[in-house]
Amino acid sequence: MRVILRWFKYAVGLGVIAASAGLWITRPNPLPETALSSVTGDPIAGEGVFAAAGCASCHSSPDASGEARLVLSGGRAFASDFGVFYAPNISPDPTHGIGEWSDTQIASALLRGVGREGAHLYPALPYAAYNKMTLQDAADLIAYLRTLPSDQTPNKPHDIGFPFNIRLALGGWKLLFERSDFVVTGDLTPEQTRGRYLVEALGHCGECHTPRNALGGLQRDAWLSGAAIPGGNGRTPNITPAKLGWSEAEIVEYLTSGFTPDFDTAGGEMAEVVKNTATLPIEDRAAIAAYLKVAPAIE
Amino acid sequence: MRSLHILLAGLALAAATTTTLAESHVDPAIAGAIKARQAHMQLYAFNLGTLGGMAQGKIDYDADAASTAASNLAALAHLNGRAYWLPGSDNASVDGTKALPAIWADGSDIGAKAAALVEAADAMNAAAGQGLEALQAAMGPLGGACGGCHQSYRQSNN
Description:
The complex is a heterodimer of chains A (299) and B (158). Chain A is mostly helical and 299 residues long. Chain A has twelve helices and five strands. Chain A has two domains: 126 residues; 105 residues, Cytochrome Bc1 Complex, Chain D, domain 2. With 158 residues, chain B is an all-alpha fold. In chain B, α2 runs antiparallel to α5, α3 runs antiparallel to α4 and α4 packs antiparallel against α5. Chain B starts with a helix and ends in a 5-residue tail after the last helix. About 9% of the residues of chain B have low confidence. At the A-B interface, β5, α10 and α11 of A face α2 and α5 of B.
């Protein structure tokens, strides 16, 4: 009996140690305070990062168009298998926006998925892609965000049920699914490398075009092969060379005007994406096309 | 041999029944309306093919051909399609369409989107015969007007 009790104590002790170690390993890991000390943000360059990263598509107010897309008041709803996420206000407003956040705090949100208070953020913010963003691009983007109009719209809390409302558990999600390496590897031309950065890091194309597992992790072995759209509005198409038979010029045209080779047009969320890609330098759209041609063909 | 005949007859009957059942699900008026508007979309795409082909340099610019396509496009945009955008012909109610129920829902701005298309198509009609650069400049707003509707009111592809 005494032996059993002793073993039981060991087991409990080990369990506590394991749980503590788990919490320690999966704790929020913000950028160090000096992370951006080597770079200076340029707001003009940041405008390009802003377009490539598609910030306005999620953070502008619902149905904003034209100049109003630069008012990042938040409020758009994003249905998921785990509940509804509401994009927060990331305008420079000191109370409702991110005006009081330091550059490092904003960069930590983007690159590490850690909020100002040090808690894990939900991967509705695509930090699993943005974590591949260069510090220079992050600094430029932050400098640009600070030039945008302020807005006093309060944040709407996410509508997430138990157990997904436990932010501590997001550390486990990050450990399992957040990867900082690129999916496409091997010898790439400078253009393909630029395209990879635009697709896999800033553009976060895989967030919609790659299927997810039951816990919302991207299935990297099915990269860009199309996925169900949360909320039931159809599927995103497979854009790997196995299914997307467009030439590079046709891909560039689509990302410029929204026209497909047979003159259908981009619809759904992709129409928002084209608004962004249309403002990129043509070399960037060509780079995206070049990358898509060397992405793994997945049926 | 006889059993094979019976099997084939049975299969044929089953196929015929299935077809009839599938068709009987959709009100003929709705089915006809969906067919008509999809044909309308095809005509847009066909004429856009001429303009877009020139804009992209796939076919040589020809002022007459461009003007004809643009005037067709404008005529199409001006058509009153209300009769074939019937309530109950959305993708939640019937198969064979990607039209979202939001088109007919309260707060729908489909009228404004249609007006934007008319404006962009008229602008293209004015520009298409005025040289390749004018045509190219009118292409973006036209695509934007098409996309304006497809963004909010059409089920995503695939």
